[in-house]
Amino acid sequence: MSTLPPSGAPRPIVIAAGGTGGHFIPAEALAHALAARGHTIALMTDQRAGARDHGIFAQGQQFVLPGAGIAGHGLARAARAAVALARGTLQARTILRRLDAAAVVGFGGYPSVPPLLGARLLGRHRPLIILHEGNAVLGQANAQLARFADGIATSFSQVARLPTGARTTLTGMPVRDAIAALHDQPYTPPGNEIRLLVWGGSLGARVFSDVVPDAITRLPAALRARLRITQQARAEDAERVRATYATLGIPAEISPFFANVADLLGAAHLVIGRAGGSSVAELTDAGRPAILVPLPIAASDEQGANAASMVTAGAGWMIRQPDFTAPSLAARLESLLSDPATLAGAAAAARSLGRPDAAERLADLVEGLLHHRPDPAYPTAAATLTAATTETTS
Fold first, then answer.
1. Annotated binding site for UDP-N-acetyl-alpha-D-glucosamine
2. Which fold has domain 180-353?
3. Given this chain, do its domains 13-175+356-390 and 180-353 carry the same CATH topology?
4. To which H or E segment does residue 85 belong?
5. Under CATH, domain 13-175+356-390 is a member of which superfamily?
6. pLDDT tens digit sequence for 162-199
7. Which HAMAP family match (predicted)?
8. pLDDT at position 348 over 80
9. Residues forming the annotated binding site?
């Protein structure tokens, strides 16, 4: 745990995030935006993420709290998780009181629960409580916290499971700067060369390794000859995927991890992947068409709802995993890759959904809520909300 600030220091804004990149990347983007405006930032995270020793959070205070998710486990493990959450909540309350935090911004998932519950327990003089929801369905942790949030930032114009009367603002999902910069890069339909990007989350997805190479073998030879494939695959699957493409004579780059995601996304003519909130935000900010295969085990089918928003806008196509077979994918690929105008139309529709300034919109929301709760520690927070942050969800 980091040392606490001296008496009289500016009241910090606490970012509550941990676990997966889908929660942590937008948290980092908001931290950068707020720090650039002169705010002091502190991080509350979980033991899985650990203390961050680089980036924006390394410049401020970090507090690692106990806590774990309780969904989908046996009773004994759920009981242990509940105890850890309770301990984390009490620790967070103590730290927030001593920090005299102005606001706590949570990004969903169970790492955000102890800080936000701890803030709630401070009563009348508690910090502002702000949630960010990255999916088209309110996540389980956010659903439990939403009833006492001062504001909820959403990434989609329609979000299911929001409580009646919730104060919501459409900000979009903050992404990395390199991804946001793609919004101004035009989409060029495929010509002699077709670049296909297959990604499946931070560790790849076996279903893509099983289905995509088989589907490619079923395409007409003339179409295969134009393909250039970049595919994320688990380490144990990479060699067999690579071998299939080599046999077909298709140039392919296969890896469990790609550091240059922005470059790959900017070059792609079509993307195949999951439909997590961060993935959809990256696709729409970049304006790239996609075939989306929602994760089938998500309790609330949030990825299905995310993908449906893309389909409704004409920005992509959804194939449910039971229907994601080599024959069905081959048929879809042959149709799309033979129709550049359809791909270009979907790319334009995707770009129309993008909000590359989401981090600034979210920072505007935080400052706007602080403005409505006057605080002499924030004399520069009097700027009114911009038009972008007054869009509300229904």
1. 20-22, 135, 176, 202, 303
2. Rossmann fold (3.40.50)
3. yes
4. helix 75-99
5. Glycogen Phosphorylase B; (3.40.50.2000)
6. 999 999 999 999 999 999 999 999 999 999 999 999 99
7. MurG
8. yes
9. 20-22, 135, 176, 202, 303
